[in-house]
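A quick word before the example. In earlier lectures we treated sequence and structure as two separate objects. From today on, think of them as two lines of the same record. Here is Signal peptidase I written that way.
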Amino acid sequence: MANYFSLFLVFLTVASGLIWLLDSLFFASKRKAKATATGASIAGSTANAEEKAELPYIVDTAQQIFPIIAFVLILRSFLYEPFQIPSGSMMPTLLVGDFILVEKYAYGIKDPVFRKKMIETGTPERGDVVVFKYPEEPNIDYIKRVVGLPGDTVVYRNKQVYIKPACEGASTQNCGKLRPVDVEFKSRGEFVQDMAPLLRYTEQLGDVAHDILRHPMRDVHPSHFYTQPGTRSNEWRVPEGQYFVLGDNRDNSRDSRFWGFVPDENLVGEAVAIWISFEFERAPDSWLPSWIPTGVRFSRVGGID
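And the structure line, produced from the sequence above:
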């Protein structure tokens, strides 16, 4: 849907702009001349001739919507785009009902239709929360946290993430050591899933400290993971130009462990802020439809860790 909407915005902007331009170049002067002649023959004056040259409906509409549509296109395509969080895979960082702003220029300026990078502005860093086109279905937007950078080796064992960072100018086979990502227990029971209180930890990824959730009983067997040729089922070597991503709700997230890596060209941008957050939980006997929010969580508005 995102690509179709971008295409619609581009079409509407170009069409309304062309209508306005062609009218200004070829038709506006003729209308004014005709109105002048008509006004002079009737009233002997040309003072109100320009007012008498009424704009055709399609030209008037184009002039009214072009500035608005062009502004929305530039804002959405190159600066910031709003997204809604539809699932709990990024809990506790992002909750269902959060509406976020994604910085579109964080990882390159791309054209709004074919999404080809025109200007390089940066690359993801370890710990960034990114929105990207799901590699298996590019029409779907996913949001996860970057864990592995190009050249890294990532291992996921017993709910613990291990990383061997890549080193520039050296073989990744012999560079660095496989080390566990630092985690520290924080709390238990704030979130419940499948009748079980989830365990909350603080995880340190590079310079980013953020919280994750672990299910005390659920664990996915490595046989269900994406298997990269030449590695074990719970180990991945991140190819150049690609990234390894995980959800913060580790036992309730379909991420790189299951389908592989995110190519650079699939990146949409970095999630930088929550601009509004709605609560959708309701009592079992509530008569309200599920899509109607029950409240606003103003405390969640702000930056994303």
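Notice the following. The radius of gyration is 27 Å. We will return to this example when we discuss secondary structure assignment.
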